[in-house]
Amino acid sequence: MTTVLIADDQPLQRLGFRMLLESQDDMTVLGEAPNGTEAVRMTAELQPDVVLMDVRMPSLDGIEATRRIVTAGARTRVLILTTFDLDEYAYAGLRVGASGFLVKDAQPEDLLSGIRAVATGDAVVAPSLTRRLLDAYAHHLPAAAPTPTDPQPEDSRLAPLTDREREILTVIGKGWTNTEIATRLHLAESTVKTHVGRILAKTGSRDRIQAVILAYETKLVK
């Protein structure tokens, strides 16, 4: 059973989400939060598997609420809900530790499959859409200091990776799916999944989306 907390300042929106989720045999709604402050408090109290997190809310917005939930070390995964699929707030949400994002007018089956994916530790955003998001907001990434003569020191987060794992992290950042990686690098898909799992563990990435962001931040992908 996947447990969900709904965080949204619109009562009708919360009601719609609740009716949809509770129509599923494998989901239950633990509560509803009308703002970010309550979302943080209720997450700590109820420990849901997933929080459906609206961005624009009074008292505390969804981005800061997400940051506080992730920083607290909760096992809860956060799924950001946005108005537009390339909303800058979606990028901010991913940067602070959200496990994915969906648009509010997504099809019901997409929302349900997204919640199930996030609950199992997977990423919701399709690799191609992740690439679009990061391409659109790459200017938010920290700029490297200009060093015309000396090479930049390598980011320490890459140090534990083998050459193969670094190669796979690079193409993950480019938006390749596991199937594409297997085909283009001539590997079994099960082997790719093993490599991806090791990359996440070694780099401390919560999920595939965080690995994509890491690939950009460490300049493996530009």
Topology:
Layout: E1 2-7, H1 11-21, E2 27-33, H2 36-46, E3 50-54, H3 62-71, E4 77-82, H4 88-95, E5 100-103, H5 108-119, H6 127-136, H7 163-173, H8 178-185, H9 189-203, H10 208-217
Parallel strand pairs: 1-2, 1-3, 3-4, 4-5
Helix pairs in contact: 2-3, 6-10, 7-9, 7-10, 8-9
Task: Describe the model.
- By secondary structure, the protein is of the alpha/beta class.
- It has 10 helices and 5 strands; from the N terminus they run βαβαβαβαβαααααα.
- The protein has a 5-stranded parallel beta sheet with strand order 2-1-3-4-5, with helices on both faces.
- β3, α3 and β4 form a beta-alpha-beta unit.
- α6 packs parallel to α10.
- It is globular.
- The model has no long low-confidence stretch (mean pLDDT 84).
Total helices: the number is 10
H-E string: EHEHEHEHEHHHHHH
Largest sheet: 5 strands, parallel
Beta-strand segment tally: 5
Mean pLDDT: 84
Strand arrangement, largest sheet? 2-1-3-4-5
Shape: globular
Task: Give a short overview.
By secondary structure, this protein is an alpha/beta fold.
What labels describe this entry?
222 residues, alpha/beta, 10 helices
